[in-house]
Design brief:
There is one protein chain. The chain is α/β, with parallel strands linked by helices. The chain folds into 2 domains: about 170 residues, 3-Layer(aba) Sandwich (Rossmann fold); about 55 residues, N-terminal domain of TfIIb. It is built from 7 helices and 11 strands. The chain has a 7-stranded mixed beta sheet, sandwiched between helices. The chain has a 4-stranded antiparallel beta sheet with strand order 6-7-8-9. α2 crosses α3 and α5 packs across α7. The chain is globular and about 55 Å long. The relative contact order is 0.15.
Length: about 240
């Protein structure tokens, strides 16, 4: 039986994504937040192992980091401790979470909302609105429909390294892509252990996200592609909005 998403991948996630450009990606958010005068207290929602929170913390932000994967949070806490950083790691689901206080901004990069079904978006966005101060900012991205339908659909991805091999067998459905992920992890004795996970990413059209944000009380400021580039043909769509 497949494990929950990220039960095993958590330990290897950042390592296997070492080519995604976390520093440049984070700088895009840092410059954008500064230009908005967004304040310094933020929540990274769907934080994974907290790569963005660590970089923002190093740049003077006070960050909380939330994810529904306990293994991801454990990995994130270890990485933050190794770097001497103070970040609150919180177990929570984007569809149902709450915070004891309010933050200046909520940042949700790298596919968090692709894991949430379309009919659950409006409710999830309302929970984000409750976590924000009045006038606070919500910045999320999703893997775009053209990426999931055109690049992920019915493909196999592989990353073979000395200590771990990653395989993802992807199948397209009308509203989602299901990814059967297999890891082969090298042990101390030189033998490899196999781990399997199922990941489901939903396809969200731009208009549907905009509608759900408006229904949750957000003013949409702009939609753009990855790192602020054109949205047409981009692998990612960024939605920057403000709580009314």
């Amino acid at each position: 039986m497949c494990a929950q998403a990220y039960d095993h991948l958590a330990e290897w996630f950042e390592y296997l994504n070492d080519d995604c450009g976390y520093p440049q990606w984070s700088q895009y958010f840092i410059e954008g937040l500064a230009s908005l005068g967004a304040g310094k207290r933020g929540l990274e929602l769907g934080c994974g192992s907290g790569a963005f929170s660590r970089i923002l913390t190093k740049n003077g932000y006070t960050m909380s980091a939330m994810d529904c994967s306990a293994p991801m949070l454990s990995k994130g806490a270890r990485l933050a401790a190794e770097e001497g950083l103070s970040i609150d790691f919180l177990l929570g689901d984007a569809r149902t979470f709450s915070l004891p206080g309010r933050v200046d901004f909520v940042l949700s990069p790298n596919d968090c909302f692709n894991y949430i079904a379309p009919h659950e978006l409006k409710g999830a966005f309302r929970h984000v609105a409750r976590a924000l101060k009045k006038g606070g900012y919500f910045w999320l991205d999703v893997s775009s429909p053209c990426k999931l339908r055109g690049k992920f659909a019915n493909t196999v991805f592989a990353d073979d390294r000395d200590d771990v091999t990653y395989l993802s067998f992807n199948r397209l459905y009308p509203d989602r892509v299901e990814m059967n992920v297999t890891l082969f992890v090298k042990g101390k004795d030189g033998r490899f252990d196999r781990f399997d996970e199922l990941h489901t990413q939903y396809i969200h059209e731009e208009e549907a996200i905009c509608s759900a944000l408006a229904a949750a009380g957000f003013e949409l400021l702009r939609v753009e592609g990855h790192l602020g580039g054109p949205k047409e043909g981009s692998d990612r769509l960024n939605f920057l909005c403000k709580r009314a």
